[in-house]
Every structure is written in C-alpha cells, then in structure tokens.
C-alpha cells in the first residue's frame, strides 16, 4: 500500500529501528498512528509563578530544582518530610506530614512542579502540595506560557523525544489529513478545520498565544467528531448497500413441525421467552428482513429461542444457520439442539474449522443444494465460500465476540436474510445507538423458574485450602466444579498461576482422589471436545480451564466455580464465567480469588460491600476488593454498568472486536452528544452527496477508506 500515512515511523529522521521498536510498544507504528496519538492531558504552563512573586494564600504553581531533602520526627512521633526547592528568584519549602515514603520520591537536583497555597512569605512554604517530578531533559522554557501536550511514554522514550517524533510525523501527515466537510458545514456548526485541530491538540507549530483551554476544547471536539462521523458514515453506507439487496425469503406460518416441537419441549417457556418469540414470529412473517438483537443475561435461555426460530424457518423449507464464536460452543449447540430436535424430521449439521475435509465437502454440498436444515458453525461458516441458496434465518450467538462488520456476512451478500443477533452483554446506550442503530431489540428479562441465585464470595488466596475442602464436599454430593485461570502457561511478566501448572498440582496433589480435566484455547479441537464431553457426562468432576468456557457452556450439574487471579478479569467477564453455574436446581457457589491489591478506603464499593449479606459458613467476602460488587448482585446489567464506570467503554467492549475503526480520542460515554451529532451530520451528508464538490467527495472517500479499508463504497454512488 502506498498510503503515505501508513508509512513506518522508522523512516522518520532520528527514529531508526530501536526507537521504532520502543514506539511500537506504545502502539505506534505508522505516521497515522503517531498523528492520532493524542496527549492524555495538557499541562497549563501559562501560570508558573516565580518564587519571589508568591503571595500568602494565593494558590500557585512553581517550577524548581530540589535543593535538599530532609526527614525528622516531632516529639509526638510524627514524621515530617521536607524538601527545599529553588528557582532563579528564591527558595521554597515544601512539607508533608506522616508520609515518610515521600522522602524517597525526591532526589537532589530533580526538576519538580509544585502546586499549593503559599504560607509564611517572605520565606514561602507549601504544606502537602501537589507535585510532579519532571524528566531530566525537561526544559521549562520549551512550553512556558502555553499548554504543554503530555504524552504517555514507555521507559525508553523521554517526553521531549516523544514530542519531537510526533510533531515530525504530524508534519508528514497533515497534507493528507485534509478537511472533508464542506465549508458551509464548518461555518454552520462552528467547527475547527481538521488539520488545524490536529495542530492545536499536539501544540505543533501553532501560535502559542492562541493556545488556550477554549481553543483546545474546540479542537478536541472536532477530532472526536471526526472519529464518530467516520464510524457513522461507514455504517450508514453499509446499511444503505445492504438495503438495496433484494429480500425474497417468505416464511411459512407456524405449522405441524413447530407444534410437534413445542409439544416435546422439556420445560415450559418463561413469559419473556414467549414474548420474544412472538416478536420474532412477527418479524419472520413480515415481507421485510428481520434485524433483531436479543439481549438476555446469562442463563436466561436464549438458545431455545434460537432453536424455535430455526424450526419456524425450516418448516417453510429454508435453511437456518447458527453461528457461535468458539468451537466448543458450536459443538455444544450442536449437541443441545440435536437433543431438542430428536424425533423430528429436521436435518442438523455442524461445520467448524476442524470438521474433517470429507465430511465438510458433504455438508457444503448439501447446503449448496439448498436442502432445508439447521446448520451450526463457527467462523468457518462465514469465512469459507459456503453458499446457502435457501438461507432463511441467520442466528449469531454471543454477538459481542464477533465484529459488527461480520454481522451480515453470514450469507453471501447477494440477498438479504432474516437475522437474529444474541448477546448476554448489555450494550452501553451510546454504542447501541451507533453500532446497532438499525436493529430492533428484544429482551429476555426473566430467568427460568426454580433458579436459585448463585452465592458469590471474594476471597484472598490464603483461604484456598478451605475452598478445596468445600469442593470435595460438593463433589461428594454428586456435583461438579470449574476452576478457572487467566493464563495457559507461565508468563515472564505476570505473576499469575497458569492453568497447565495448576492442573498438574490439582490433579496430583490437591485432588488425587478425583477426576480432574483440563481445557484451554490452544488444545486441539478434538481434545477439547473429549474433555468437555467427559465433563458434561460427569466422568470429569473438576474442570480446570481458561476462559474458553466463558461463553455459553451449559453443564447444569456444575455447582462450584473458582476463579483464581480473578482480579485479572473485567466484571462483565466474571459475570459470564459465573453464568456457567447455577444452571440446575442445586445451590451454586462462585468463589473469586482476588490476588490483586485492595482498593483504597475511599472507594464507594467498600461501604456497599460491607453491608452485603454474606454466608459466614463458607467464606467472607473481602469488602475492599474491586470485585466485591460481584458478591452483591447477580444482575448482569448492574455489573456491566459498574464495569463501564471502572474501566471505560473501550476496554469494556473491546473496540477491536467490533470491527470498527479504533477510537483514539472519542469516548463513548463522555462524548455521547457528539456521537448523536455525528450521526446526524452523516445522514445529512449522505442525503446531499450528489451536490458535494468532487474534491470534497474525494477527501471523504479517502478518509473512509483509511478507516474501513477498501470495503467501503458508495460515497459517490448515486
Ligand atoms: P443463555 O441465555 O445463557 O444462552 P441457555 O440458552 O444456555 O442460556 O439456557 C440456560 C439453561 O436454562 C439451559 O440449561 C436451558 O436448557 C435452560 N432453560 C432455558 N429455558 C428454560 C425454561 N423456560 N425453563 C427451564 N429451563 C430453561
Ligand atoms: Mg448461550
């Protein structure tokens, strides 16, 4: 590719292979990456006060060099750390009480910024000021009187070098970051032109006197808008394109097959399942394609909904496809659905990456002949050129594990089909608006009857012996247990317990009398399958695993889940894991072993956790764990909200997984208003695309192509 923005940073003057490697550790490889590596904050250096100008009681920031560090004890055994800081005009004393570790923070000669309220002028002193220790090569004059961009660094890069590299990259990039909004739009909404917004954010060759918090905020707004606009436009174009495809599927109304299926169901549907199925039936019978999102917490019974929808499609002579994100889950669906459909004249096939070639050829041939059937698969189903001429329903399970762009790819894009997307992850409102804006939403807000809430405990690793004892008791009572680890193998950098090692330990030392199995993502599909089968059959009693079991696995006899190093996981992920138990009638227990540091006292979680009901007979929850919320609620929506607060949307949802361009500056929670505005602008521009100037169109197309690759078309199509 000869896109100048995709050129490697290595070829910038002064970079070279070694620095390029250091930059890559910050995720920076190309000119484009560097131009979009925005400072995480700006430091206001317009207001540095020289020491002789300090006034009692007027807050000020001082830049200086540490002249001396001292520690002393008062008679009341208080520790006082003080440092003397000097600048060209005078000396300032800064002190901290009872924080003896502060003495190790400062060394003589270090450059520091201190912010505080001066006392005792003319011998000024700060008590417990805010401080920032500046890097060796900090030049106070470099950004004096301005807003200095502060970038995240890796060890090998100093702030100054980082700034130089980014500025050099930006100069290269700017000619290709042309404004793509028509002038009229810029004027009407008072938007900073894109190139200017980049210069301002990076404080790169922009008049110093004009760099103010207000300019900065406007520049930031423009860049946020850029990211959201591109996403919105891409999705709108994609939708417009799909919308033009013919839709010829005509489902038959419910008949004998469905009636027979319902008659042999092993349970009665919940009210929510019945309601959702009515919505789905309505969509299927309508003369337009179904595009429905089914949200339902773990264990709410989404699978049966999918099967019933599939039966409706098959009844009318169509093929129904169910796509699962992992091989294990596809296998399980195959088993569950085969059992549910037994005695019915419905053909079921499984197609995954490890389907043997001969079988695969057979299945593919059947599909291509258009034989009605239920086909269950993994990515193999969409990636390969499997042609399903009679596809009438596509179900995508656990959508959050797939990309958005993949959603509609299940069928060769020649025609539209009815699509049901299922997820257990409650999607933040703002994201749903953008990414799923074209989907109708159904909710399974009710769990099947007879479920007992899972009891959850958050403990320290030193309580593990009691946990092992508890597992022995549960297994003696005929139940089974999961023990989950974050890693497969030992890691050089993370001090975590790996599944493979712990498997040996558990098998030989802790539970020598029990059948212990191991499953992880790097095992061969066949081996995984064997272990999962043994666990489902109850011959394996304790299953040691990684998060490969995170989604969908359904073994109702398992009543205990232990997650070691649980602090490594997000709350939403723990909730998914926990959803593997509590699926039968027996009481289930989830034990989260938190090997991380306790949260500081002021965290609100503590107060709430302390009041939470606990089961003293087993273990108490450590109320100071970040995970304490898990012990208080089994409600996936509450947990997802908490997770979103703790980690932010990027990490929560893993934007990479959505298949959308990465967000460098925009924040789905903070910038919700901008997101709506971006969508509005995208709709408007799409409507008026005929009247755009050719050069505007070219720029718009170039911007979209950079974000989505060549797959995006239609900016200039009529
Ligand atoms: P999820 O929504 O997490 O995919 P599943 O579809 O795997 O949930 O269902 C969880 C468990 O609940 C399964 O064992 C399933 O057979 C059972 N189940 C589903 N619906 C009902 C119901 N209406 N009554 C009783 N059990 C049900
Ligand atoms: Mg499921």
Give the SSE layout.
Elements: H1 16-25, H2 31-35, E1 41-44, E2 60-73, E3 79-87, E4 90-97, E5 111-116, E6 125-127, E7 130-134, E8 147-150, H3 159-173, H4 183-189, H5 194-201, H6 213-244, H7 256-263, H8 271-285, E9 291-296, H9 302-315, E10 319-323, H10 327-340, E11 348-351, H11 357-368, E12 373-377, H12 380-383, E13 391-396, E14 418-423, H13 429-435, E15 440-444, E16 455-459, H14 464-476, E17 480-484, H15 499-510, E18 516-519, H16 525-537, E19 542-545, E20 558-563, H17 571-578, E21 589-593, H18 604-611, H19 629-632, H20 636-653, H21 655-658, H22 672-687, H23 694-708
Parallel strand pairs: 4-6, 9-14, 9-15, 10-12, 10-13, 11-12, 13-14, 16-21, 17-19, 17-20, 18-19, 20-21
Antiparallel strand pairs: 1-8, 2-3, 2-5, 3-4, 5-7
This protein binds adenosine-5'-diphosphate and magnesium ion.
Magnesium ion is lined by residues 302-303, 397, 552.
Describe the structure.
There is one protein chain. The chain is of the alpha/beta class. It folds into 4 domains: 1-41 and 164-211, no CATH class; 47-144, Nucleic acid-binding proteins (OB fold (Dihydrolipoamide Acetyltransferase, E2P)); 256-424, P-loop containing nucleotide triphosphate hydrolases (Rossmann fold, 3-Layer(aba) Sandwich), CATH 3.40.50.300; 455-633, Rossmann fold (3-Layer(aba) Sandwich), CATH 3.40.50. Helix content is 36%, strand content 17%. The strands form 4 sheets. Strands 11-12-10-13-14-9-15 form a 7-stranded parallel β-sheet, sandwiched between helices. A 6-stranded mixed β-sheet has the order 6-4-3-2-5-7, with no helix packed on it. Strand 18 (516-519), helix 16 and strand 19 form a beta-alpha-beta unit. It starts with 15 loop residues before the first helix and ends in a 10-residue tail after the last helix. Adenosine-5'-diphosphate (ADP) is lined by residues 267, 269-270, 273, 296, 298-304, 424, 448, 552, 554, 556, 579, 583.
């Amino acid at each position: 590719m000869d896109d100048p923005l995709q050129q490697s940073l290595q070829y910038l003057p002064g970079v070279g292979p070694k620095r390029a490697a250091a930059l890559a550790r910050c995720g920076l490889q190309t000119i484009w990456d560097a131009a979009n590596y925005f400072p995480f904050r700006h430091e206001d250096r317009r207001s540095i006060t020289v020491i002789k100008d300090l006034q009692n009681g007027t807050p000020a920031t001082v830049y200086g060099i540490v002249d001396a560090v001292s520690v002393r004890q008062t008679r009341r055994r208080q520790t006082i750390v003080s440092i003397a800081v000097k600048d060209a005009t005078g000396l300032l004393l800064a002190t901290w009480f009872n924080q003896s570790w502060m003495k190790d923070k400062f060394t003589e000669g270090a450059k520091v910024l201190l912010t505080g309220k001066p006392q005792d002028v003319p011998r000024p002193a700060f008590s417990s000021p805010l401080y920032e220790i500046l890097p060796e090569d900090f030049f106070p004059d470099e950004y004096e009187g301005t807003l200095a961009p502060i970038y995240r660094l890796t060890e090998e890069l100093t702030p100054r070098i980082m700034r130089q590299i980014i500025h050099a990259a930006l100069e290269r990039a700017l000619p290709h970051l042309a404004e793509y909004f028509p002038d009229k739009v810029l004027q009407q909404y008072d938007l900073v032109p894109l190139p200017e917004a980049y210069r301002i954010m990076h404080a790169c060759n922009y008049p110093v006197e004009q760099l103010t918090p207000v300019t900065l905020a406007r520049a930031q707004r423009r860049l946020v808008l850029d990211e959201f606009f591109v996403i919105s436009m891409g999705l709108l174009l994609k939708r417009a394109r799909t919308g033009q495809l013919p839709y010829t599927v005509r489902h038959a109304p419910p008949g004998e097959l469905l009636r027979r299926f319902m008659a042999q169901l092993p349970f009665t549907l919940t009210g929510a399942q019945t309601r959702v199925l009515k919505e789905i039936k309505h969509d299927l019978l309508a003369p337009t394609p179904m595009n429905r999102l089914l949200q339902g917490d773990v264990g709410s019974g989404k699978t049966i909904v999918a099967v019933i929808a599939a039966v409706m499609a098959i009844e009318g002579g169509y093929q129904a496809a169910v796509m699962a994100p992992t091989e294990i889950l596809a296998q399980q669906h195959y088993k569950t659905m085969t059992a549910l459909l037994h005695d019915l004249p419905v053909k079921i096939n499984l197609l995954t990456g490890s389907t043997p070639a001969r079988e695969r050829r057979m299945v593919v041939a059947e599909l291509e002949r258009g034989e009605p059937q239920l086909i269950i698969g993994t990515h193999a189903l969409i990636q390969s050129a499997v042609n399903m001429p009679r596809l009438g329903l596509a179900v995508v399970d656990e959508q959050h594990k797939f990309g958005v762009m993949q959603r509609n790819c299940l069928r060769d894009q020649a025609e539209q089909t009815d699509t049901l997307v299922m997820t257990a992850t409650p999607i933040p409102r703002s994201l749903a608006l953008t990414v799923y804006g074209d989907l109708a939403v159904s909710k399974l807000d009710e769990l099947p009857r007879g479920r007992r809430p899972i009891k959850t405990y958050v403990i320290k690793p030193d309580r593990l012996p009691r946990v092992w004892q508890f597992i022995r008791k549960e297994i003696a009572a005929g139940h089974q247990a999961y023990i989950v680890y974050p890693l497969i193998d030992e890691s050089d950098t993370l001090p975590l317990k790996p599944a493979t090692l712990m498997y040996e330990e558990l098998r030989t030392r802790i539970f020598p009398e029990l059948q212990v199995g191991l499953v992880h993502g790097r095992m061969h599909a066949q081996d995984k399958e064997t272990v999962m089968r043994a666990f489902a059959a109850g011959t394996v009693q304790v299953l040691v695993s990684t998060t490969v079991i995170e989604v969908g696995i359904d073994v109702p006899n398992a009543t205990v889940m232990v997650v070691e190093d649980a602090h490594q996981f997000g709350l939403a992920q723990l909730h998914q894991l926990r959803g593997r138990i509590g699926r039968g009638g027996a009481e289930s227990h989830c034990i989260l072993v938190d090997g991380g540091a306790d949260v500081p006292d002021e965290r609100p979680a503590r107060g709430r956790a302390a009041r939470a009901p606990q089961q003293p007979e087993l273990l108490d929850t450590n109320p100071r764990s970040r995970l304490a919320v898990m012990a208080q609620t089994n409600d996936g929506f509450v947990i997802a909200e908490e997770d979103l607060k703790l980690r932010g949307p990027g990490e929560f949802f893993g934007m990479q997984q959505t298949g959308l361009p990465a967000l460098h500056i925009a924040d789905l929670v903070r910038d919700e208003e901008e997101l709506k505005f971006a969508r509005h602008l995208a709709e408007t521009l799409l409507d008026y695309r005929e009247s755009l100037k050719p050069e505007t169109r070219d720029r718009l197309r170039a911007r979209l192509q950079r974000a989505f690759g060549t797959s995006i078309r239609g900016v200039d199509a009529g």
